[in-house]
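hey so i finally got around to running the thing on that chain from the lab meeting. sorry it took forever, my laptop kept dying and i had to restart like 3 times. anyway pasting the input first so we r on the same page abt which one it is
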Amino acid sequence: MMVRLNTRHELPQISIRQTQGRLDESAIVQPRTRSAGNRQASANKGATQPSLSIDSYPSRRAYGFRKHGDLAAERGQRGISDAQAATGRHAQKAWSKATTAARRGDDVVQEIKSEIFSDYQARVVFTTADIPDPQMQGYQSEVVGEPDVGDVTVDIETEPNARIHYTPGSVETSLENEGFIRHWVSMDRYDIYA
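ok and heres what got predicted. didnt touch it at all, straight out
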């Protein structure tokens, strides 16, 4: 007779109950934008027209076409010098008459006549002078103006912390069956019913 070792076992069984964690995303505060200014950029550039400046007054003055101010200054200076010359001449004649009037041969009338007719005997004097060229100055076209880079500043307001509600998940385990291992012996054959 032979002894047989019989073994019977059952694995342990556990149950797991699990709850998922949950994040409420609707509580997240979105950043807000606020526009501080919206000034569009502008070139602000323009081109000036080319120009030509012509000063022909020196040429016209040489021909006798003077401005009123120049003519008045020239005539005023000439009048002052003529008055000074006439005053000196009359003073000299007066002293001459005072000292020689009583002498014979001093004919005052003849002297006045010769002075009057001396103007008719005067000869015309012509002078020549260079006529200056007109003064010309050209000005080229220029780009003027300063560009404006504009202002599109945007302020972004954010919360320092997100308002998030989080529900943590959980896992619960429990032992449904502890399981077992049993051994026994039987004679001549295995005990399949035990």
